[in-house]
Amino acid sequence: MTEAKTVTPLKVGLLIVVATYFLFTLHAMFTLQWWNEWNIRGSFNFGVFITDVAAFPGLIVRFIGSLIAFIAVALALTKKGLPQSSAYKLLKIVLVLEALYWLTLLPSGIWGTLPTAAGFNLSFLVSTGLPCLVASISIPICLFAVVKNLGPNKPQKAAIKWSMIAGIFYVLSFWLNNSGMWIITVMQKGFGYVLSTPQYVVSFSATLFGLLALAIFTAYLAKKSMGTEQVQSLRIRSIGVVLTALGVYYLWNYLTWIFFGGWNQWYAWILGHNLDLWLLSLPLLGIPLLFANKADLENNP
């Protein structure tokens, strides 16, 4: 077996992360409990209808993309490997499908910012309108730019730049989305609810302040990486910090529900309607990056 095919924690972590990405999307794809939730209690909610139905095609394309990503990484890690040209083509397909997934959230973003007959719905604005509007515009633009500049015979600088910018908007979108859910929870139950248990205090603080700090750090990292010519020259350990911190955030919220139980608007979101919960596996990729070097990147798919 050649050195390039040696099993490493980084390769194993990558495989588990893409497998988790696929399995969470698979589960969401065939869990149809959301269907007809716009008719709960016999009252038709057009806003829920728009946000659910418009986003479903995005779930389909993300499912296809996650399946391709899992198969591609699995093939790349076999003894035979995956040809470079094929790897780039598959990566482009996955990125395009991921961009389309986020793009289908645009109707939800627009609908969430429109006023009703009674005026602006603040809870809908902060939990759906702003997060979906920001994510559905910024992330697809960045991912399409990455695809445009990605290729075995193209300079890596532009693709790296847009990848780093995409990272900023990913973390920013996660901050807006999850913060919005905590905000409407506080609006419904009062701030005393946050102080009622230590895990709520930690989750609230990690969401509103921790994710914001991580977004700022990601922006700082992106700025420092703008002139990077090759992937091997990136600040690998700093990227590992971002991935690990983001993954620990989602893992923490999931584990607190398992060990402490309880149910509220926040947990309904983080567990029932959150297609980004697969990110809880990111530490398996981020931690190896904390100890990686250029040779590790060169010998990975």
- Structural domain tally: 1
Number of strands: 0
Radius of gyration: 20 Å
- Class computed from helices, strands and strand pairing: mainly alpha
Q: Bin the strand percentage.
A: under 5%
Biggest sheet overview: none
Low-confidence stretches: none
Given the C-alpha coordinates, what overall shape results? Answer: globular
Give the termini distance in whole angstroms: 16 Å
**Average pLDDT over all residues:** 86
Helix amount, in percent? Answer: over 70%
SSE arrangement, N to C: HHHHHHHHHHH
> What's the helix count?
11
Kindly report the oligomeric state of this protein: single chain
Overview of the structural elements:
- With 301 residues, the chain is mostly helical.
- It has one domain.
- Helices cover 71% and strands 0% of the residues.
- It contains 11 helices and no strands.
- α3 packs antiparallel against α5, α4 runs antiparallel to α5 and α6 packs antiparallel against α7.
- The relative contact order is 0.12.
Key terms:
301 residues; 11 helices; globular; 71% helix; mainly alpha
Question: TL;DR of this structure?
Answer:
Helix 2 (46-76) runs antiparallel to helix 4 and helix 6 (157-189) packs antiparallel against helix 7.
Topology record:
Layout: H1 9-29, H2 46-76, H3 84-103, H4 106-113, H5 122-148, H6 157-189, H7 198-225, H8 236-260, H9 265-272, H10 283-290, H11 294-298
Helix pairs in contact: 1-2, 1-10, 2-3, 2-4, 3-5, 4-5, 5-6, 6-7, 6-9, 7-8, 8-10
